[in-house]
């Protein structure tokens, strides 16, 4: 690979990394052709971009980005490396868990989600349990609506009781 080709790959990786908040670094070494094809197909179905990269080129692309700190991932850039890029933080982790039911690969090396660094395959369960932005917003709205609903229902039921009490008292007074 010439210097010009390397520079082009670094620029492409830099552009991809600048445009994402979810990056998984995984080891897919040892997957046969069928399993690799299945992995790529599953990635496509789940909206995950998968790309095999050279560690040194990926690190150089990460170093060129000033607005994001990928330095916590540098120690994980050894051996065979495939990157997963996704919109949802837990999508690649769930995909890896599903695939690992049939095979011992891919292995999670590290993940970078909204500036948080997760290193090691033991972080896979924690990453799979992360809630997406939409799920968190839904939960917050539900929590905010709950007290309001309780107040409104208490006012409605209390209003009927007070109205009944006032009517009864006015009838007794006559």
Polypeptide structure, described:
The chain has two domains: 3-130, Ribosomal protein L10, N-terminal RNA-binding domain (Alpha-Beta Plaits), CATH 3.30.70; 132-174. Helices cover 54% and strands 16% of the residues. The chain is built from six helices and five strands, in the order H-E-H-E-H-E-H-E-E-H-H. A five-stranded antiparallel β-sheet has the order 2-3-1-4-5. Strand 4 (107-113) and strand 5 (116-119) form a beta hairpin. The longest helix is centred in the C-terminal third of the chain and has 41 residues, at 133-173. The model has no long low-confidence stretch (mean pLDDT 82).
Biggest sheet details: 5 strands, antiparallel
- By oligomeric state, this entry counts as single chain
Radius of gyration, rounded?
26 Å
Shape: elongated
Number of domains: 2
Write a compact overview of the structure shown.
The protein is α+β, with helices and mostly antiparallel strands. Helix content is 54%, strand content 16%. It has 6 helices and 5 strands, in the order αβαβαβαββαα.
């Amino acid at each position: 690979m010439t210097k010009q080709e390397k520079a082009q790959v670094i620029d492409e990786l830099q552009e991809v990394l600048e445009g994402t908040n979810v990056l998984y670094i995984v080891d897919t070494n040892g997957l046969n052709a069928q399993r690799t094809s299945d992995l790529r197909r599953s990635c496509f179905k789940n909206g995950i971009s998968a790309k095999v990269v050279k560690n040194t080129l990926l690190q150089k692309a990460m170093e060129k980005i000033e607005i994001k700190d990928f330095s916590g991932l540098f120690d994980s850039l050894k051996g065979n490396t495939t990157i997963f890029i996704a919109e949802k933080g837990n999508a690649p982790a769930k995909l890896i868990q599903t695939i690992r039911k049939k095979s011992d690969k891919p292995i999670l090396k590290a993940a970078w989600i909204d500036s948080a660094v997760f290193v090691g395959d033991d972080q896979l369960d924690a990453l799979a349990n992360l809630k997406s932005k939409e799920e968190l917003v839904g939960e917050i709205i539900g929590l905010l609506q709950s007290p309001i609903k309780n107040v409104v229902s208490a006012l409605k039921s209390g209003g009927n009781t007070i109205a009944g009490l006032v009517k009864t008292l006015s009838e007794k007074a006559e």
